[in-house]
């Protein structure tokens, strides 16, 4: 007979399949549960999770895999559902469960967790504690649990459960030194693998394998969502000098208002002015979104270049603007949002791509495998922030190759004026202007070749006032010619112009 240690070893690094049909559905029969269990065993799964003592008894007869048994009850005086009574533990042990799972959340319950665990141990079985927090995991282990399951994460409070599984809880529990089974919403092979990489000893998957009603519903929603026209979105583009509000549907911007970005009005006045720009549009949009200069890290908006816009420290744009508008707001860095816009509707449509906007500053974004990379700090794709080593020390690429950098370089050559003036002079054959632009393009080309080497996208889309200024793309191609063919990207001119950011962020909000 296998010992508890053998059973846990046999499950390490393996898949456990929960065979729990939708209650009262067409598969909610002992025969179906046994059929699921046999299919699971044939697929190479290492264990089963089975609800109800009659199902456990039948599965133990039909399969050699270890069974995690549980009983679910809907009690009037407690929200605890999984194996709440000692009699449930006894029934599951007698039915042949190798492991008995109990709800070990910190909620009022008919029988203390410690008593349930003690009964399981007394009967020589392994005890699995279904928890929702690290503190509950610690308490359950101290009370004698053999295995911690993240099963209850997202189900122990009043809020609806999130879509994603709780990998962070797996990570935390894995540090406690006891076996951890990741369970709950591991709805794809990729997520199940991520659980193992996060430190889980085994992964328990249920709905994605044994609840056809749920799987069918996911597909139905995805198909119907994709077929539905995108809802109108109130989209803002908040930049250093101007703020744009627009109503956007798909790639169509059907109304727009612009104002100078207010300065020196305090953050309250600032948000009131931004929200005021959308006055009178109530009821004409379903969601709100903002493409913003600077970086968005979680909820917090901060400056990448404090000279562009003085954003108050720790400022949560999504919360504050959301309250002002009375609707949730999605916020994304403007260049990342523009990258998404060009990917969805513009020059990089449907392709692995990077986007660079070269204007007064330099921003960028990367879309790979249909996903916008935002980065752990919200700066993925920000090519303008790439350090360049100058004799004087490191500087950001943006200070050398942006519109601002071009004007500054021209000034050092004795010519005052903005980047536009430099382009105009270059077109009339002035060599100082041509040299200035070539210098900027050379710097940018080196970074672009580096980007190609690191990310290897199908194309790099170039936008922005400088990027799209006459002759600049050709200059970039010329200056790229010195590099090995493998790092020379396919360059394409952006299609959506200055609207890429609002179109991109609106599309992201409409799909969220
Ligand atoms: C919260 C709760 O009652 N979970 C139950 C526990 O046994 C089951 O309903 C889940 O199906 C099981 O945890 C597997 O999760 P998923 O079906 O998401 O793969």
Automatic annotation (TrEMBL):
Keywords: Carbohydrate metabolism, Isomerase, Kinase, Transferase. It is an enzyme of class 5 (isomerase). GO terms for cellular component: cytosol. Pathway: Amino-sugar metabolism; N-acetylneuraminate degradation; D-fructose 6-phosphate from N-acetylneuraminate: step 3/5; Amino-sugar metabolism; N-acetylneuraminate degradation; D-fructose 6-phosphate from N-acetylneuraminate: step 2/5. Its EC number is 5.1.3.9. GO terms for molecular function: N-acylglucosamine-6-phosphate 2-epimerase activity; N-acylmannosamine kinase activity. It comes from the Bacteria. NCBIfam families: PRK01130.1. HAMAP family: ManNAc6P_epimer. This is Putative N-acetylmannosamine-6-phosphate 2-epimerase. It comes from Mycoplana azooxidifex.
């Amino acid at each position: 007979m296998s010992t508890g240690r053998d059973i846990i070893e046999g499950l390490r690094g393996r898949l456990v399949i929960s065979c729990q049909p939708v209650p009262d559905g067409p598969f909610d029969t002992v025969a179906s549960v046994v059929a699921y269990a046999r299919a699971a065993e044939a697929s190479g799964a290492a264990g089963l999770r089975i609800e109800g003592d009659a199902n456990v008894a039948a599965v133990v007869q039909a399969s050699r895999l270890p069974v995690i048994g549980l009983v679910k009850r809907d009690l009037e005086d407690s929200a605890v559902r999984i194996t709440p009574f000692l009699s449930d533990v006894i029934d599951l042990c007698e039915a042949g469960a190798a492991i008995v799972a109990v709800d070990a959340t910190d909620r009022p319950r008919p029988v203390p967790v410690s008593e349930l665990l003690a009964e399981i141990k007394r009967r020589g079985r392994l005890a699995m504690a279904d928890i929702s927090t690290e503190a509950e995991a610690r308490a359950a282990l101290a009370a004698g649990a053999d295995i911690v399951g993240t099963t209850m994460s997202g189900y122990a409070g009043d809020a609806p459960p999130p879509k994603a599984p709780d990998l962070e809880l797996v990570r935390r529990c894995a540090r406690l030194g006891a076996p951890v089974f990741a369970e709950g919403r591991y709805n794809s092979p990729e997520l199940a693998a991520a659980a193992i990489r996060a430190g889980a000893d085994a992964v328990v998957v249920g709905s994605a394998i044994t609840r056809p009603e749920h799987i069918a519903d996911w597909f139905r929603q995805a198909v119907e969502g994709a077929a539905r026209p995108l809802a109108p979105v109130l989209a803002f583009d908040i930049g250093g000098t101007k703020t744009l509000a627009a109503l956007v549907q798909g790639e169509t911007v059907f109304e727009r208002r612009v104002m100078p970005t207010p300065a020196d009005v305090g953050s309250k006045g600032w948000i009131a002015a931004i929200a005021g720009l959308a006055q009178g549009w109530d009821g004409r949009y379903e969601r709100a979104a903002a493409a913003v200069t600077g970086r968005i890290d979680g909820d917090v908006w901060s400056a990448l270049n404090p000279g562009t816009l003085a954003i108050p420290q720790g400022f949560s744009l999504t919360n504050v603007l959301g309250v002002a508008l009375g609707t949730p707001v999605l916020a994304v860095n403007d260049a990342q949002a523009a990258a998404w816009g060009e990917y969805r509707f513009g020059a990089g449509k449907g392709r692995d791509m990077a986007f660079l906007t070269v204007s007064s500053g330099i921003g960028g974004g990367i879309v790979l495998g249909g996903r916008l990379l935002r980065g752990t700090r919200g700066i993925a794709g920000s090519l303008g922030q790439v350090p360049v080593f100058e004799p004087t020390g490191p500087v950001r690429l943006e200070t050398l190759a942006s519109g601002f950098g071009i004007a500054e370089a021209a000034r050092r050559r004795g010519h005052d004026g903005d980047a536009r003036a430099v382009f105009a002079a270059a077109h009339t054959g002035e060599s100082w202007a041509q040299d200035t632009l070539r210098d900027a393009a050379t710097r940018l080309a080196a970074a672009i070749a580096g980007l190609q080497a690191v990310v290897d996208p199908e194309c790099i889309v170039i936008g922005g006032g400088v990027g799209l200024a006459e002759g600049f793309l050709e200059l970039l191609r010329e200056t790229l010619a010195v590099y090995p063919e493998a790092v020379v990207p396919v360059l394409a001119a952006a299609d959506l112009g200055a609207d890429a950011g609002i179109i991109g962020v609106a599309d992201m909000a409409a799909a969220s």
